[in-house]
């Protein structure tokens, strides 16, 4: 699944932006989608791709981020046909299904293993290998029809302390995914908000202490 943002504002009429991975939207040069407008914040919003779904998050922009004319305050799931607006710039979201359609009448090539087996058998015939009939004629049979003088290889011994019937359980290996630049930006915005609230609380306590002990 992939998505395309098709501009419908007069300033960007006809432009299309393909979204295949996480993207930062804003006016700053390090953004993935740069929108040159004074109404756009330096880091305006973030597009996140997770499990074939597209999410939109506003990064405390000055003029807001909108979905279908509604300003969003938290991460919002987008769908086909949504109108996404960054400040005064509007885009229509188009979803494209990347599934392939297979023609049932198309003749598929042989599997690699079958082709290699056919080639190996052909080489054996070219090198004069005896056929099954010839090899059967060389084998002596008993009265019961069982082949004689046929050696059967012995199985390899099992090392001590190993249970052949025990099932090996795979050991899960934790995989740490690196945080994307979009997630880091969202986390930074949260930390700034928490720090600002802490400073305001300290100032209020100082003012109350001054008034109380005056």
From TrEMBL:
Kinase found in the keyword field: no
Keywords (A to Z) from UniProt: Membrane, Transmembrane, Transmembrane helix
Region entry Disordered, spans: 111-130, 140-172
Listed InterPro entries: Cell_Proc_Reg/RNA_Proc, FHA_dom, SMAD_FHA_dom_sf
FHA domain residues: 23-72
Membrane-spanning residues: 192-213
Alphabetized Pfam families for the sequence: FHA (PF00498)
Protein name listed in UniProt: FHA domain-containing protein
Source species: Acinetobacter brisouii CIP 110357
């Amino acid at each position: 699944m992939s998505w395309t943002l098709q501009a419908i504002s007069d300033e960007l009429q006809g432009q299309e932006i393909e979204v295949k991975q996480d993207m930062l939207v804003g006016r700053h040069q390090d953004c993935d989608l740069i929108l040159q407008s004074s109404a756009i914040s330096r880091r305006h919003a973030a597009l996140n791709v997770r499990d074939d779904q597209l999410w939109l998050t506003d990064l405390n922009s000055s003029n807001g981020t909108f979905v279908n004319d509604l300003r969003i305050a938290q991460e919002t799931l987008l769908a086909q046909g949504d109108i996404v607006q960054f400040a005064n710039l509007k885009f229509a979201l188009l979803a494209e299904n990347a599934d392939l359609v297979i023609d049932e009448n198309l003749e598929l090539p042989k599997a690699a293993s079958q082709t290699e087996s056919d080639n190996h058998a052909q080489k054996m015939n070219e090198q004069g290998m005896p056929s099954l009939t010839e090899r059967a004629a060389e084998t002596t049979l008993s009265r019961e029809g069982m082949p004689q003088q046929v050696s059967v290889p012995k199985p390899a011994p099992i090392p001590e302390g190993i249970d052949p019937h025990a099932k090996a359980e795979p050991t899960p290996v934790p995989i740490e995914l690196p945080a994307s630049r979009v997630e880091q930006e969202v986390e930074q915005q949260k930390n700034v908000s928490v720090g600002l609230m802490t400073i305001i609380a300290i100032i209020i306590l100082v003012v109350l202490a001054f008034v109380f002990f005056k």
